[in-house]
Amino acid sequence: MRGGIDIVQLRLKCATDREVISTSRRFARVCAAHGALFILNDRPDLVVEGQADGVHVGQDDIPIGQARALVGPERLVGLSTHSKAQVDAAGAKDAPDYIGVGPVHETPTKPGRPAIGLDVVRYAAQRSAIPFFAIGGIDEGTVGAVVAAGARGVAVVRALVDAADPEQVARHLREALDRNRKAVGAAQS
User: Fold this and answer.
1) Is residue 89 within 8 Å of residue 126, measured between CB atoms?
2) How many structural domains compose the chain?
3) pLDDT tens string 154-181
4) Which of 78, 93, 123 represents a domain boundary (last residue)?
5) pTM higher than 0.85, yes or no?
6) Strand arrangement of the beta sheet that strand 132-135 belongs to
7) CA distance 42 to 76
8) How many Cα atoms occupy the beta-carbon half-sphere of 133 within 13 Å?
9) Among 46, 78, 110, where does a domain finish?
């Protein structure tokens, strides 16, 4: 977070409810101390007790309306999308607060999920009224192309967790994101 991350998502796929709640509360305290939002992955039933700012669900998880009912109207609900049709459907009734679009590139954090490339990012930028993040295989070398395709935010996993100096990588990603957003904005003016 010292490197410029403003949202943290906790993914604990194989943890018990108690482990998720305990870890979530620790993350919530740290994120609050840094002014960052904290999102819990896949577990809307534990968001309130875990003191998270919201939940992120996938296409095969609980429906958005049910997730919102569990977390309450004051918390965020995000949804993963992997196609143009899913981007369009996200804007229907019970719309999420934001969507994740990807994986843009193949990534081991989503085994078996094929990369969707930049075309769906471009589509979301042109058609979605809902804010979105591009996700999947994004790093310092690919962030420019993702921003040029229309993403104004990105979500990363391996670029940080595999880094020898995550703070420095986060800072470089934030700088690259900001620099590329300015360049795209200037080109559109």
Assistant:
1) no
2) 2
3) 999 999 999 999 999 999 999 888 887 7
4) 78
5) yes
6) 7-10, 37-41, 54-57, 76-81, 98-101, 132-135, 154-155
7) 13
8) 21
9) 78
